[in-house]
Amino acid sequence: MKIEQIYTGCLAEAAYYIESNGEAAIIDPLREVDPYLKRAEKDQASIKYIFETHFHADFVSGHVDLAEKSGAEIVYGPTAQTTFKSLVATDGQQFKIGALTITALHTPGHTPESTTYLLTDEQGKAHCIFSGDTLFIGDVGRPDLAQKGELTMEDMAATLYDSLQNKILCLPDEVLVYPAHGAGSACGKNMSKETFDTLGHQKEVNYALKASSKAQFIQEVTAGILPPPQYFAKNAAMNKHGYESFEEVCEKGLTPLNPEEFEALANNTGALILDTRDPQVFAKGFIPSSVNIGLNGQFAPWVGALITDLKQPLLLVCDAGKEEEAITRLSRVGYDNTIGFLLEGMSLWEASGKELERITSISAAEFESILNINENVLALDVRKPGEYAAEHLEQTLTRPLDYINDWTNEIDHKGTYYIHCAGGYRSMVAASILKARGVENVIDVAGGYAAIRNTGLKRTDFACPSKGMKA
């Protein structure tokens, strides 16, 4: 028996490879499927089943491409409906993988079709569960993503409670829990950095599993849930109805363009220029109207949160050799319309003498000096609301990057804005978006709040009402 967790940190996503006696199964695969095919080939195994725990919202699964290439059958849980060929399992239906048995346990609550797969080993002993977004390490799935009709978030939370009590918590304590996500995913609010655990330990430490009643569970699970990123519903639809093949997406996007070709496409297609370089490198010189979302961070989730149209044509600026990685990561969240990339990164553009823009980046010490001279500086903290509430500078306004498309209409384009986040990644994203939208004077605070904490600036560590934007 082989069970391998294939964890992708930038998405905080876990897929699984299972093999026994020459037969294999994949659970919740990512969009690019060659790694799974090569893994099975290494074991001289054939992929028999592709198990999907639910219609994922935070990434596009590779189930359709993988089924076509491997001949495997796609399995969903009860109530699922797809427009491609799939097997919709009944509650309790069993599947054989060599000497192993996988049982579908219908566990609705996160979504109506959510299903946990119980793996029983060669001796018939319950070994592990693949819990999808039903049960995480330290948390449970958010119940607000798949409400239908008159069903409320609280109704779905009640259903989730029943699923956990009746299908999962009755399993032996030594059963391993393998979830679909870890810390950093927007599919939960309190996930641990650990990516698996025993069920018994989760009963002891997981706040949701320790709830003494259904009412307490509903209250705790629904408290403090932020709105989901806008791309979630669009990804779920792609997972339900299918999508363009990954190879076609790559072929279209991996088109090298010299500066003249790149500029012409940018001017004639309405393409968004997405610069994926390091924030501080970007700041020193970039193509006008570029938006910086660096590959060295949670690139795909931020693209999904901030670029509202999945069909938006994209032109990429990358460090040389990083183009395929960028296209791959974009495809994982459904952004399949990359139409080319700037050949040799920025070197040819700079050599051609074409226009460049820059963003000033100052140190935390310089920022301190400025605030000490002028308390009325327009300073924006673009961290999440919870981060701001935990601790922030008294002079800053909370303007979370997640909602920049909502609050940019409050910005005075003639004002000068000092922007910081936690470490410098999100602040440059925000600065680049504001710059692209006509705000000329944006200044990044390098190192973010981590650096600011080492200054003498006065901080507060409790939630304050959001101040209105000053003119």
Short characterization:
This protein is α/β, with parallel strands linked by helices and 471 residues long.
Which shape, going by the Cα principal axes?
globular
Average pLDDT works out at 94
Assigned CATH class of the largest domain:
Alpha Beta
> What would you say the CATH architecture of the largest domain is?
4-Layer Sandwich
Radius of gyration: 24 Å
Task: Give the key terms.
single chain, 471 residues, alpha/beta, Metallo-beta-lactamase, Chain A, Oxidized Rhodanese, domain 1, 3 domains, 17 helices, 30% helix
Structure description:
The protein is of the alpha/beta class and 471 residues long. A six-stranded mixed β-sheet has the order 1-2-3-4-5-6, with helices on one face. A six-stranded mixed β-sheet has the order 7-8-9-10-11-12.
Which secondary structure elements does this structure contain, and how are they paired or packed?
Layout: E1 2-8, E2 13-20, E3 23-27, H1 34-42, E4 46-51, H2 63-70, E5 73-76, E6 87-88, E7 94-97, E8 100-106, E9 115-120, E10 126-132, H3 153-168, E11 176-179, E12 197-198, H4 199-205, H5 214-222, H6 232-241, H7 246-253, E13 256-257, H8 259-269, E14 272-275, H9 279-283, E15 291-292, H10 299-306, E16 314-317, H11 323-331, E17 338-342, H12 347-351, E18 360-362, H13 364-373, E19 378-381, H14 385-390, E20 392-393, E21 396-398, H15 404-407, E22 416-420, H16 425-436, E23 441-445, H17 448-452, E24 459-460
Parallel strand pairs: 3-4, 4-5, 5-6, 10-11, 13-17, 14-15, 14-16, 16-17, 18-23, 19-21, 19-22, 22-23
Antiparallel strand pairs: 1-2, 2-3, 7-8, 8-9, 9-10, 11-12, 20-24
